[in-house]
Amino acid sequence: MIHPYTRRFYHFKNLDTVRDRFFTIAVCFPFPGNEESVTWYDDIATSRPVGASGLFSHTVPAATVPSPDGGLNSERFGGEGTGGYRDAVGTGRMSPYPLACVTAEKQGLAIAIDIGSPVVHRFSYSRDRGLVAEFDLALSGELILDPNGAAFSVLAYSVDPQWSFRSAVEIYQKIFPQYFTRRLANEGIWMPFTPVNEVEAWQDFGFAIHETSLESRTMFNGSGRPVAEVDRALGITSFQYTEPWDIQVPVDPSGLAYKDVERAADAHAQEGPQIRRSIALDSRGQWMARLISAPWFTPPWAISYTTSVAPDVSSSSRYQRVKVAEIDSAMTLGFDGIYFDSLEFFWHYDLDYRPEHRRASPYPLVYSISSATPSPAVWNYTTQFALLQDICPKLHAAGKLTMGNGFSWIPFSVAHLDILGTEFSWFMKDEEKSAIGAFRRTVCGAKPVVLLLNEGLYSDDFTKAPYEGYRQYFEESLFYGFYPSFFSADASNDPYWKKPESYNTGRPFFKKYIPLIKEINRQGWQPVTHARTSDPRARIERFDAPGDTLVYFTIRNVSHVDLRDVDIEVEDVGTGGKALGKLEEMVYSQRVNQHSPRGVRLDLRPRTTYLLKCVLGRE
CA–CA distance from 493 to each of 293, 294, 522, 557 (Å)? Predict the structure, then answer.
């Protein structure tokens, strides 16, 4: 049964057909509990009490990302102006979640957008305006599908105030079940590039997903064979690599200037026509081109050209080249799916002012508040989404899978991808790691989330006994049911899975934790835990498949101190009216003190995750 909700559709039209219009639309929803004590929620782990005044919101920066090595279409390299780098997308902030909620003592309200329709949006709450959804829009007569128009929708529904943001997420998943379908039958860790069979005793590690390519081959049973063929023999799911959002060409950076950008593209017979046909333009009409460090090239530098990959029938377009040469070819050779790299690397916040791209945009255009004279622009992420929306349903219809890497703070790709991955640095701050972990788990629902550790993988935490980095990494992953793996310190050279001295050090940790992560994911993450801990420093998540008697709870002490006698109370609804029955702590075999039919007590060590397996019994 779907929870009652309302969905309002809005279509704005500019009656002035001569001038473009730029504005932020705010849709306000009064909260019936406004006069009571109100709480705003940033995510499943963080809330804030609302005072008599003030604006409450949870947003992340939304601005064009500069390369640390420089934007070639800028004054620094002989271009004009700044090249648009650091320009705000709309007003420069965006909500990472597709929903927001507030609660009072006896009621709660959520508003949401549809992640199947990307749009620059923000949510906020204040006592005078209620819950607000804002949208940054540009209306242009150039747009073919909706001249001088823009459309979006907003949903509103009540939530259980006892479970607040988690209740809002649970209801959202019921409204849009098509976005949270789990298709990967055999879950496990992610192998980047290295043939799985070349790892000693590879069965110990829990490999399930292989990012590889058409050209990759390996020795297997005495002969050289395509890696995808070997993966099938091993029961590994193979994914063909593609990174459609830009085209990179190797370059010597010495004396490089903007005037060299077109020449460098034309020097490559295959890439040149694609770049010319699909290149994004900045507000001055210059090619969007970055100088980037590229250790996968020799010399280790490249020009990265931002390209539009929106579907296009022309043979020279970026879309058509990727579809024919990488996607269709991989399907013919029996790959299990397509891997889309770098979803949120440099190009996702680029603003594309190319007239042909503006005219063809299937989604609302945007503007930049950074510009003194704004012009309609394509938020480049929407062209990425347009490719996913065209390709992924066709792959699913053929029984194939889709995976994306670089999933960080933009929620829309979850609508089409079956596996969400990211590469990260061990030196990320704990607060950021916690916030983005909560985001990924929440927005992906029960879909598999897979990780690769890059920077820091050869630090002392992973190379010197007792190898505390492994325990921390794997237990942080276990808490949310993520699958941990490793790649390379610079995302290219000296890969972990080519170094027996590294992966043999990690082997005991993989053998201990990956089976546990697979076990809880067979049940599936649930947004509402139906359980609470007596100490807020002890966090809890629930993995539970409806209809059986098995429930798992992950409990993590996020503090740096021991927590003694932490009570965990499970609601009656969380057990279907049954007692907790047989209990087992699966990480440390810790004794579980059950003090009531649905209550247990645990001691928790600092920064440690525990896994409680519950076989429900009679009351």
Answer: 13, 11, 34, 36
Alpha carbon distance, N-terminus to C-terminus of the chain: 27
Residues 204 and 123 in one domain: no
Contact 107, 38 (CB under 8 A): no
Residue 129 lies in a domain: yes
Phi–psi pair at 455, nearest 5 degrees: -60, 125
Count CB neighbours of 366 within 10 A.
Answer: 26
Residues paired with 594 in a beta bridge: 600
Instruction: Give the Cβ contact number of residue 493 at 10 Å.
Output: 11
Backbone angles phi, psi at 274, to 5 degrees: -65, -45
Spatial CA neighbour of 379 closest among 344, 327, 334: 344
Q: Is residue 523 part of a domain?
A: no
Residue 350 has pLDDT above 90, yes or no: yes
Q: What is the mean pLDDT of residues 457-462?
A: 97
Over the range 92-128, which residues count as b (16 or more CB within 10 Å of their CB) and which as e?
bbbbbbbbbbbbbeeebbbbbbbbebbbbbbbbbbbe
Q: Do residues 455 and 597 share a domain?
A: no
- How many C-beta neighbours within 10 Å does residue 153 have? 16
C-alpha closest to that of 414 among 152, 245, 179: 179
Edge to edge, what strands does the sheet with 608-617 contain?
525-526, 538-544, 550-557, 608-617, 579-585
Q: Are 417 and 182 in contact (CB under 8 A)?
A: no
At 82, the amino acid letter reads T
Nearest to 403 by CA among 173, 165, 241: 241
**Burial category of 60 from C-beta neighbours within 10 Å (exposed 0-12, middle 13-18, buried 19 and up):** middle
| Whether 100 and 206 share a structural domain | no
Residue 499: give its domain's CATH number.
3.20.20.70
Q: Tell me which DSSP letter residue 161 carries.
A: T
Question: Is 349 among the domain residues?
Answer: yes
Cα(255)–Cα(301) distance, rounded to whole angstroms?
13
CA angle 147, 152, 154 (to 5 degrees): 165
- For residue 512, which phi and psi values (nearest 5 degrees)? -80, -50
**Structural domain that includes position 574:** 529-617
- Distance in angstroms (rounded) separating the CA atoms of residues 116 and 443: 13
- Amino acid at residue number 454: N
Give tens-digit pLDDT for 472-492.
Answer: 999 999 999 999 999 999 999
Residue among 341, 328, 338, 359 nearest 246 (CA): 341
Q: Are 419 and 355 in contact (CB under 8 A)?
A: no
Report pLDDT digits (tens) over 270-317: 999 999 999 999 999 999 999 999 999 989 999 999 999 999 867 778
206 and 169, same domain (yes or no) = no
- In a shared domain, residues 499 and 556: no
Query: Which of 404, 426, 399 is CA-nearest to residue 415?
Result: 404
